[in-house]
Predict the 3D structure of the following.
Amino acid sequence: MIFVYIFTALLLVISLIMQAHTSFDVLRIAGIKPDLLFITIVYCGYSFGSFYGEVTGFIGGLLHDAASHSPLGLLALPKFVVGYIVGFFGRSVFKGTMITVFILLFAASFVKGVLTLVLCYIFSEATASSVFTIIFPEAFYNALLAPPLFFLFDKIFEKELEREGY
Amino acid sequence: MEFFIRHKSIVVFVLFFLFCIISLSVHTSPLTLSLEGMGRAFITPFQKGYNGAQQNVRKLWAGFTELGDVRDQLRLTREKLQHYEAVAEEVSEIKKENDRLRKLLDMQKRVTNDSIAAIIISKDPDNWFRTIVVNRGSSDGVRINMPVIAYVGEEKAVAGKVVEVRGSVSVIEPIISTGMKLGVMLQESRFPGLLSGYAANSNFAIIDYINKSAAIKLGDVVVTSGQGGIFPQGMLVGKVIKSFVSESSPYQRAIVAPIVNYNQIEEVFIIKKEPDKELMEVMGKVEP
Protein backbone atom coordinates (compact mmCIF):
# COMPACT_ATOMS: atom_id res chain seq x y z
CA MET A 1 0.00 0.00 0.00
CA ILE A 2 2.97 2.31 0.54
CA PHE A 3 3.42 2.31 -3.23
CA VAL A 4 -0.12 3.67 -3.63
CA TYR A 5 0.51 6.44 -1.06
CA ILE A 6 3.73 7.56 -2.75
CA PHE A 7 2.25 7.55 -6.25
CA THR A 8 -0.92 9.30 -5.11
CA ALA A 9 1.17 12.06 -3.50
CA LEU A 10 3.26 12.37 -6.66
CA LEU A 11 0.17 12.49 -8.89
CA LEU A 12 -1.41 15.17 -6.69
CA VAL A 13 1.68 17.40 -6.77
CA ILE A 14 2.35 16.87 -10.48
CA SER A 15 -1.25 17.56 -11.50
CA LEU A 16 -1.39 20.69 -9.33
CA ILE A 17 1.88 22.09 -10.70
CA MET A 18 0.86 21.31 -14.27
CA GLN A 19 -2.49 23.04 -14.03
CA ALA A 20 -0.97 26.04 -12.23
CA HIS A 21 1.79 26.52 -14.80
CA THR A 22 1.49 29.34 -17.34
CA SER A 23 1.83 26.95 -20.30
CA PHE A 24 -1.33 25.10 -19.17
CA ASP A 25 -3.36 28.11 -20.36
CA VAL A 26 -3.14 26.80 -23.92
CA LEU A 27 -5.66 24.15 -22.83
CA ARG A 28 -8.24 26.76 -21.90
CA ILE A 29 -11.46 26.40 -23.88
CA ALA A 30 -13.97 29.24 -23.43
CA GLY A 31 -11.81 30.47 -20.56
CA ILE A 32 -12.02 27.15 -18.71
CA LYS A 33 -9.22 24.71 -17.97
CA PRO A 34 -9.64 21.14 -16.72
CA ASP A 35 -9.08 20.23 -13.07
CA LEU A 36 -6.46 17.44 -13.23
CA LEU A 37 -6.14 17.37 -9.46
CA PHE A 38 -9.83 16.68 -9.09
CA ILE A 39 -9.72 13.88 -11.69
CA THR A 40 -6.90 12.30 -9.63
CA ILE A 41 -8.96 12.60 -6.43
CA VAL A 42 -12.04 11.03 -8.05
CA TYR A 43 -9.86 8.19 -9.32
CA CYS A 44 -8.51 7.56 -5.80
CA GLY A 45 -12.01 7.43 -4.30
CA TYR A 46 -13.27 5.32 -7.20
CA SER A 47 -10.47 2.76 -6.89
CA PHE A 48 -9.57 2.65 -3.19
CA GLY A 49 -12.76 3.52 -1.30
CA SER A 50 -14.37 6.41 0.52
CA PHE A 51 -11.75 6.80 3.28
CA TYR A 52 -8.90 7.03 0.78
CA GLY A 53 -11.00 9.29 -1.45
CA GLU A 54 -11.81 11.78 1.31
CA VAL A 55 -8.22 11.89 2.67
CA THR A 56 -6.81 12.40 -0.85
CA GLY A 57 -9.49 15.00 -1.53
CA PHE A 58 -8.74 16.87 1.69
CA ILE A 59 -4.95 16.93 1.24
CA GLY A 60 -5.21 17.72 -2.48
CA GLY A 61 -7.82 20.39 -1.76
CA LEU A 62 -5.66 22.06 0.89
CA LEU A 63 -2.72 22.16 -1.54
CA HIS A 64 -5.07 23.58 -4.17
CA ASP A 65 -6.22 26.25 -1.69
CA ALA A 66 -2.60 27.11 -0.89
CA ALA A 67 -1.69 27.46 -4.57
CA SER A 68 -4.87 29.38 -5.35
CA HIS A 69 -6.01 32.71 -3.93
CA SER A 70 -9.04 31.07 -2.33
CA PRO A 71 -9.62 31.05 1.43
CA LEU A 72 -8.27 27.87 3.05
CA GLY A 73 -10.97 25.16 2.90
CA LEU A 74 -13.01 26.59 0.03
CA LEU A 75 -11.62 24.20 -2.56
CA ALA A 76 -10.77 21.44 -0.07
CA LEU A 77 -14.32 20.91 1.22
CA PRO A 78 -15.99 20.11 -2.13
CA LYS A 79 -13.09 17.86 -3.10
CA PHE A 80 -13.12 15.67 -0.01
CA VAL A 81 -16.92 15.48 0.01
CA VAL A 82 -16.93 14.26 -3.61
CA GLY A 83 -13.96 11.95 -2.90
CA TYR A 84 -16.01 10.40 -0.08
CA ILE A 85 -19.21 10.05 -2.14
CA VAL A 86 -17.43 8.55 -5.16
CA GLY A 87 -15.56 6.13 -2.88
CA PHE A 88 -18.83 5.13 -1.26
CA PHE A 89 -20.01 3.68 -4.57
CA GLY A 90 -16.69 3.07 -6.28
CA ARG A 91 -15.96 0.47 -8.90
CA SER A 92 -18.69 -1.82 -7.65
CA VAL A 93 -21.33 0.55 -9.07
CA PHE A 94 -19.45 2.39 -11.82
CA LYS A 95 -17.79 -0.29 -13.93
CA GLY A 96 -14.63 0.87 -15.63
CA THR A 97 -15.95 1.63 -19.11
CA MET A 98 -15.42 4.87 -21.01
CA ILE A 99 -19.08 5.87 -20.78
CA THR A 100 -19.39 5.27 -17.02
CA VAL A 101 -16.13 7.09 -16.32
CA PHE A 102 -17.37 10.02 -18.45
CA ILE A 103 -20.70 10.14 -16.60
CA LEU A 104 -19.02 9.67 -13.21
CA LEU A 105 -16.64 12.59 -13.78
CA PHE A 106 -19.36 14.80 -15.20
CA ALA A 107 -21.61 14.18 -12.19
CA ALA A 108 -18.74 14.46 -9.68
CA SER A 109 -17.49 17.72 -11.25
CA PHE A 110 -21.00 19.11 -11.25
CA VAL A 111 -21.48 18.33 -7.55
CA LYS A 112 -18.05 19.81 -6.78
CA GLY A 113 -18.94 22.92 -8.78
CA VAL A 114 -22.26 23.43 -7.01
CA LEU A 115 -20.64 22.99 -3.57
CA THR A 116 -17.90 25.48 -4.53
CA LEU A 117 -20.53 27.94 -5.76
CA VAL A 118 -22.43 27.69 -2.46
CA LEU A 119 -19.22 28.19 -0.45
CA CYS A 120 -18.16 31.10 -2.69
CA TYR A 121 -21.58 32.63 -2.17
CA ILE A 122 -21.27 32.37 1.63
CA PHE A 123 -17.58 33.06 2.22
CA SER A 124 -16.35 34.87 -0.88
CA GLU A 125 -18.30 36.19 -3.87
CA ALA A 126 -20.17 34.39 -6.64
CA THR A 127 -22.97 34.77 -9.13
CA ALA A 128 -25.52 32.17 -10.23
CA SER A 129 -24.35 32.55 -13.83
CA SER A 130 -21.22 30.60 -12.82
CA VAL A 131 -23.32 27.44 -13.29
CA PHE A 132 -23.17 28.06 -17.05
CA THR A 133 -19.85 29.87 -17.30
CA ILE A 134 -17.76 27.61 -15.05
CA ILE A 135 -19.52 24.54 -13.64
CA PHE A 136 -20.99 22.98 -16.80
CA PRO A 137 -17.98 23.64 -19.09
CA GLU A 138 -15.52 22.40 -16.47
CA ALA A 139 -17.62 19.27 -15.78
CA PHE A 140 -17.71 18.50 -19.51
CA TYR A 141 -13.99 19.15 -19.90
CA ASN A 142 -13.08 16.95 -16.90
CA ALA A 143 -15.37 14.19 -18.16
CA LEU A 144 -13.72 14.32 -21.57
CA LEU A 145 -10.22 13.96 -20.14
CA ALA A 146 -11.12 11.35 -17.53
CA PRO A 147 -11.21 8.13 -19.64
CA PRO A 148 -7.61 8.43 -20.95
CA LEU A 149 -6.34 9.56 -17.54
CA PHE A 150 -8.18 6.73 -15.74
CA PHE A 151 -6.63 4.33 -18.25
CA LEU A 152 -3.18 5.73 -17.43
CA PHE A 153 -3.82 5.56 -13.67
CA ASP A 154 -5.09 1.97 -14.03
CA LYS A 155 -1.71 1.09 -15.57
CA ILE A 156 0.18 2.79 -12.73
CA PHE A 157 -1.86 1.10 -9.99
CA GLU A 158 -2.34 -2.20 -11.89
CA LYS A 159 -0.81 -4.46 -9.21
CA GLU A 160 -2.67 -2.80 -6.36
CA LEU A 161 -5.98 -3.05 -8.21
CA GLU A 162 -5.36 -6.76 -8.89
CA ARG A 163 -4.77 -7.24 -5.17
CA GLU A 164 -8.08 -5.49 -4.46
CA GLY A 165 -9.79 -7.89 -6.86
CA TYR A 166 -10.57 -5.52 -9.78
CA MET B 1 -12.40 3.66 20.46
CA GLU B 2 -13.70 0.67 18.54
CA PHE B 3 -16.58 2.82 17.29
CA PHE B 4 -14.16 5.37 15.83
CA ILE B 5 -12.07 2.69 14.11
CA ARG B 6 -15.14 0.98 12.70
CA HIS B 7 -16.61 4.25 11.45
CA LYS B 8 -13.34 6.00 10.61
CA SER B 9 -14.65 7.26 7.26
CA ILE B 10 -17.52 9.16 8.87
CA VAL B 11 -15.40 10.37 11.82
CA VAL B 12 -12.72 11.72 9.46
CA PHE B 13 -15.41 13.22 7.22
CA VAL B 14 -16.88 15.16 10.15
CA LEU B 15 -13.43 16.31 11.31
CA PHE B 16 -12.48 17.51 7.81
CA PHE B 17 -15.83 19.23 7.45
CA LEU B 18 -15.43 21.08 10.76
CA PHE B 19 -11.87 22.09 9.87
CA CYS B 20 -12.96 23.57 6.54
CA ILE B 21 -15.95 25.43 7.95
CA ILE B 22 -13.94 26.88 10.86
CA SER B 23 -11.08 27.78 8.54
CA LEU B 24 -13.45 29.53 6.13
CA SER B 25 -15.16 31.38 8.96
CA VAL B 26 -11.89 32.78 10.28
CA HIS B 27 -9.95 32.86 6.99
CA THR B 28 -8.18 36.12 7.81
CA SER B 29 -6.88 34.86 11.17
CA PRO B 30 -3.09 34.45 11.58
CA LEU B 31 -3.42 30.68 12.12
CA THR B 32 -5.31 30.11 8.86
CA LEU B 33 -2.93 32.38 6.98
CA SER B 34 0.11 30.58 8.37
CA LEU B 35 -1.40 27.19 7.42
CA GLU B 36 -1.95 28.54 3.92
CA GLY B 37 1.60 29.89 3.94
CA MET B 38 2.94 26.44 4.87
CA GLY B 39 1.00 24.94 1.96
CA ARG B 40 2.36 27.56 -0.42
CA ALA B 41 5.89 27.06 0.95
CA PHE B 42 5.52 23.35 0.14
CA ILE B 43 4.28 23.98 -3.41
CA THR B 44 6.55 26.89 -4.38
CA PRO B 45 9.85 24.95 -4.78
CA PHE B 46 8.10 22.45 -7.09
CA GLN B 47 6.56 25.29 -9.10
CA LYS B 48 9.89 27.12 -9.39
CA GLY B 49 11.67 23.89 -10.36
CA TYR B 50 9.09 23.02 -13.01
CA ASN B 51 9.12 26.57 -14.34
CA GLY B 52 12.94 26.62 -14.49
CA ALA B 53 13.09 23.29 -16.31
CA GLN B 54 10.44 24.41 -18.78
CA GLN B 55 12.24 27.72 -19.43
CA ASN B 56 15.53 25.89 -20.09
CA VAL B 57 13.91 23.49 -22.54
CA ARG B 58 12.24 26.41 -24.29
CA LYS B 59 15.54 28.33 -24.52
CA LEU B 60 17.31 25.28 -25.93
CA TRP B 61 14.59 24.79 -28.53
CA ALA B 62 14.57 28.50 -29.35
CA GLY B 63 18.32 28.31 -30.01
CA PHE B 64 17.61 25.95 -32.90
CA THR B 65 14.44 27.45 -34.29
CA GLU B 66 14.79 31.20 -33.81
CA LEU B 67 18.27 31.80 -35.25
CA GLY B 68 16.92 33.07 -38.59
CA ASP B 69 14.37 35.31 -36.83
CA VAL B 70 17.08 36.73 -34.58
CA ARG B 71 19.21 37.63 -37.61
CA ASP B 72 16.29 39.47 -39.25
CA GLN B 73 15.44 41.21 -36.00
CA LEU B 74 19.07 42.31 -35.58
CA ARG B 75 19.01 43.94 -39.00
CA LEU B 76 15.72 45.68 -38.25
CA THR B 77 16.97 46.79 -34.83
CA ARG B 78 20.10 48.33 -36.38
CA GLU B 79 17.93 50.26 -38.81
CA LYS B 80 15.69 51.40 -35.97
CA LEU B 81 18.71 52.41 -33.90
CA GLN B 82 19.96 54.69 -36.66
CA HIS B 83 16.52 56.24 -36.87
CA TYR B 84 16.25 56.74 -33.09
CA GLU B 85 19.71 58.23 -32.83
CA ALA B 86 18.49 60.94 -35.15
CA VAL B 87 15.30 61.33 -33.15
CA ALA B 88 17.16 61.44 -29.80
CA GLU B 89 18.60 64.88 -30.43
CA GLU B 90 15.20 66.20 -31.38
CA VAL B 91 13.64 64.62 -28.25
CA SER B 92 16.26 66.17 -26.05
CA GLU B 93 15.30 69.60 -27.33
CA ILE B 94 11.60 68.88 -26.87
CA LYS B 95 12.25 67.62 -23.32
CA LYS B 96 14.05 70.81 -22.39
CA GLU B 97 11.24 72.86 -23.81
CA ASN B 98 8.68 70.69 -21.97
CA ASP B 99 10.52 71.15 -18.65
CA ARG B 100 10.61 74.87 -19.17
CA LEU B 101 6.90 74.99 -19.93
CA ARG B 102 6.11 72.81 -16.90
CA LYS B 103 8.03 75.19 -14.69
CA LEU B 104 6.20 78.06 -16.24
CA LEU B 105 2.85 76.45 -15.59
CA ASP B 106 3.97 75.54 -12.07
CA MET B 107 3.03 71.91 -12.69
CA GLN B 108 4.10 69.22 -10.34
CA LYS B 109 6.75 66.98 -11.87
CA ARG B 110 5.62 63.41 -12.47
CA VAL B 111 7.07 61.05 -9.93
CA THR B 112 8.89 58.19 -11.57
CA ASN B 113 9.06 55.06 -9.47
CA ASP B 114 11.51 52.19 -9.55
CA SER B 115 10.18 48.85 -10.63
CA ILE B 116 11.00 45.20 -9.97
CA ALA B 117 11.03 42.78 -12.90
CA ALA B 118 9.28 39.52 -12.05
CA ILE B 119 8.67 36.23 -13.84
CA ILE B 120 5.32 34.49 -13.54
CA ILE B 121 5.86 31.07 -12.00
CA SER B 122 2.24 30.00 -11.82
CA LYS B 123 -1.31 31.07 -12.42
CA ASP B 124 -4.32 30.22 -10.31
CA PRO B 125 -4.93 26.49 -10.82
CA ASP B 126 -8.67 26.93 -10.37
CA ASN B 127 -11.33 28.36 -12.66
CA TRP B 128 -12.98 30.34 -9.85
CA PHE B 129 -10.06 32.70 -9.23
CA ARG B 130 -7.70 34.52 -11.61
CA THR B 131 -4.48 35.28 -9.74
CA ILE B 132 -0.83 35.15 -10.77
CA VAL B 133 2.17 34.10 -8.67
CA VAL B 134 5.52 35.78 -9.39
CA ASN B 135 9.05 35.02 -8.23
CA ARG B 136 9.50 38.22 -6.21
CA GLY B 137 8.47 38.68 -2.60
CA SER B 138 8.95 40.76 0.51
CA SER B 139 12.70 40.08 0.41
CA ASP B 140 12.80 41.99 -2.90
CA GLY B 141 10.87 44.93 -1.50
CA VAL B 142 7.42 43.97 -2.78
CA ARG B 143 4.52 45.18 -0.66
CA ILE B 144 0.77 44.63 -0.76
CA ASN B 145 -1.16 47.01 -3.06
CA MET B 146 1.81 47.84 -5.28
CA PRO B 147 0.74 48.34 -8.91
CA VAL B 148 1.86 45.82 -11.52
CA ILE B 149 2.43 46.59 -15.19
CA ALA B 150 3.48 44.59 -18.25
CA TYR B 151 4.84 45.40 -21.68
CA VAL B 152 2.96 44.30 -24.78
CA GLY B 153 5.21 45.08 -27.70
CA GLU B 154 6.23 48.64 -27.01
CA GLU B 155 3.11 49.46 -25.02
CA LYS B 156 3.20 49.60 -21.23
CA ALA B 157 -0.11 48.71 -19.59
CA VAL B 158 -1.65 47.88 -16.23
CA ALA B 159 -1.58 44.16 -15.39
CA GLY B 160 -2.93 44.13 -11.82
CA LYS B 161 -1.95 44.77 -8.22
CA VAL B 162 -0.14 42.83 -5.50
CA VAL B 163 -2.61 41.23 -3.07
CA GLU B 164 -0.41 38.82 -1.11
CA VAL B 165 3.31 38.85 -0.34
CA ARG B 166 5.49 36.04 1.04
CA GLY B 167 9.27 35.79 1.38
CA SER B 168 10.17 35.00 -2.22
CA VAL B 169 6.82 35.00 -4.00
CA SER B 170 3.90 37.39 -4.43
CA VAL B 171 0.33 36.95 -5.59
CA ILE B 172 -1.02 39.41 -8.14
CA GLU B 173 -4.67 40.03 -8.84
CA PRO B 174 -5.05 40.84 -12.56
CA ILE B 175 -7.47 43.47 -13.82
CA ILE B 176 -9.73 40.74 -15.28
CA SER B 177 -10.37 39.30 -11.81
CA THR B 178 -13.94 39.87 -10.62
CA GLY B 179 -12.55 40.90 -7.24
CA MET B 180 -10.52 43.75 -8.77
CA LYS B 181 -11.81 47.30 -8.40
CA LEU B 182 -9.84 49.87 -10.38
CA GLY B 183 -10.62 53.55 -10.86
CA VAL B 184 -10.37 54.34 -14.58
CA MET B 185 -11.41 56.97 -17.08
CA LEU B 186 -11.92 57.28 -20.80
CA GLN B 187 -8.77 58.91 -22.11
CA GLU B 188 -10.46 61.17 -24.64
CA SER B 189 -13.66 62.28 -22.92
CA ARG B 190 -12.19 62.03 -19.34
CA PHE B 191 -15.38 60.41 -17.96
CA PRO B 192 -14.52 58.24 -14.92
CA GLY B 193 -15.75 54.75 -14.06
CA LEU B 194 -15.00 51.69 -11.95
CA LEU B 195 -13.35 48.73 -13.69
CA SER B 196 -13.58 45.09 -12.57
CA GLY B 197 -13.41 41.63 -14.18
CA TYR B 198 -16.29 40.78 -16.50
CA ALA B 199 -16.70 37.13 -15.48
CA ALA B 200 -14.59 34.42 -13.84
CA ASN B 201 -13.87 32.71 -17.17
CA SER B 202 -13.52 35.84 -19.28
CA ASN B 203 -10.45 37.77 -20.37
CA PHE B 204 -12.42 41.01 -20.55
CA ALA B 205 -13.16 43.66 -17.95
CA ILE B 206 -16.18 45.87 -17.45
CA ILE B 207 -16.43 49.53 -16.51
CA ASP B 208 -19.40 50.52 -14.40
CA TYR B 209 -20.74 53.89 -13.26
CA ILE B 210 -19.95 55.82 -16.44
CA ASN B 211 -22.09 58.92 -16.75
CA LYS B 212 -24.92 58.48 -19.27
CA SER B 213 -23.93 61.68 -21.03
CA ALA B 214 -20.55 60.19 -22.02
CA ALA B 215 -20.34 59.36 -25.71
CA ILE B 216 -18.44 56.07 -25.76
CA LYS B 217 -16.92 54.97 -29.03
CA LEU B 218 -15.64 51.55 -30.02
CA GLY B 219 -11.87 51.53 -29.49
CA ASP B 220 -11.89 54.32 -26.89
CA VAL B 221 -8.72 54.08 -24.81
CA VAL B 222 -9.15 53.47 -21.07
CA VAL B 223 -6.54 54.74 -18.59
CA THR B 224 -6.23 54.76 -14.81
CA SER B 225 -7.82 57.70 -13.06
CA GLY B 226 -5.43 57.60 -10.11
CA GLN B 227 -8.35 57.89 -7.69
CA GLY B 228 -7.89 54.58 -5.89
CA GLY B 229 -4.59 55.61 -4.33
CA ILE B 230 -2.74 52.64 -5.82
CA PHE B 231 -2.17 53.31 -9.52
CA PRO B 232 -0.67 56.52 -10.86
CA GLN B 233 -2.93 58.50 -13.16
CA GLY B 234 -2.88 57.96 -16.91
CA MET B 235 -1.62 54.38 -17.16
CA LEU B 236 -2.93 52.45 -20.14
CA VAL B 237 -5.55 49.78 -19.27
CA GLY B 238 -7.38 48.68 -22.41
CA LYS B 239 -9.76 49.56 -25.21
CA VAL B 240 -13.56 49.66 -25.24
CA ILE B 241 -15.12 46.91 -27.35
CA LYS B 242 -18.76 47.41 -26.41
CA SER B 243 -20.92 49.79 -24.41
CA PHE B 244 -24.51 49.51 -23.27
CA VAL B 245 -27.07 51.61 -21.47
CA SER B 246 -29.71 50.16 -19.18
CA GLU B 247 -33.04 51.97 -18.88
CA SER B 248 -33.23 51.24 -15.16
CA SER B 249 -29.72 52.49 -14.36
CA PRO B 250 -28.57 56.10 -14.23
CA TYR B 251 -25.17 54.97 -15.53
CA GLN B 252 -23.86 53.18 -18.59
CA ARG B 253 -21.36 50.33 -18.79
CA ALA B 254 -18.57 49.41 -21.18
CA ILE B 255 -16.75 46.15 -21.85
CA VAL B 256 -13.00 46.55 -22.15
CA ALA B 257 -10.39 44.34 -23.80
CA PRO B 258 -7.27 44.79 -21.64
CA ILE B 259 -4.00 45.53 -23.43
CA VAL B 260 -2.32 42.83 -21.33
CA ASN B 261 -3.55 39.37 -22.33
CA TYR B 262 -3.85 37.18 -19.24
CA ASN B 263 -3.21 33.99 -21.23
CA GLN B 264 0.00 35.26 -22.84
CA ILE B 265 1.57 37.26 -20.04
CA GLU B 266 4.92 35.85 -18.82
CA GLU B 267 6.80 38.76 -17.26
CA VAL B 268 5.60 41.72 -15.25
CA PHE B 269 7.03 44.77 -13.50
CA ILE B 270 6.04 45.63 -9.96
CA ILE B 271 6.16 49.39 -9.45
CA LYS B 272 7.68 50.32 -6.11
CA LYS B 273 4.98 52.79 -5.27
CA GLU B 274 3.52 52.80 -1.79
CA PRO B 275 -0.26 53.28 -1.87
CA ASP B 276 -1.75 56.52 -0.63
CA LYS B 277 -1.77 55.81 3.15
CA GLU B 278 -4.50 58.27 4.01
CA LEU B 279 -6.80 56.81 1.37
CA MET B 280 -6.04 53.24 2.46
CA GLU B 281 -6.86 54.14 6.08
CA VAL B 282 -10.22 55.52 5.02
CA MET B 283 -10.88 52.33 3.03
CA GLY B 284 -9.65 50.14 5.91
CA LYS B 285 -6.97 48.50 3.78
CA VAL B 286 -3.87 49.35 5.74
CA GLU B 287 -1.21 46.65 5.61
CA PRO B 288 -0.53 45.27 9.11
Q: What stands out?
A: Confidence is low (pLDDT under 50) at residues 107-111 of chain B. Chain B touches chain A through 54 residues (CB under 8 Å). Residues 35 and 41 of chain B are 10 Å apart (CA to CA). Helices of chain B lie at 2-6, 8-25, 30-65, 67-104, 277-283.
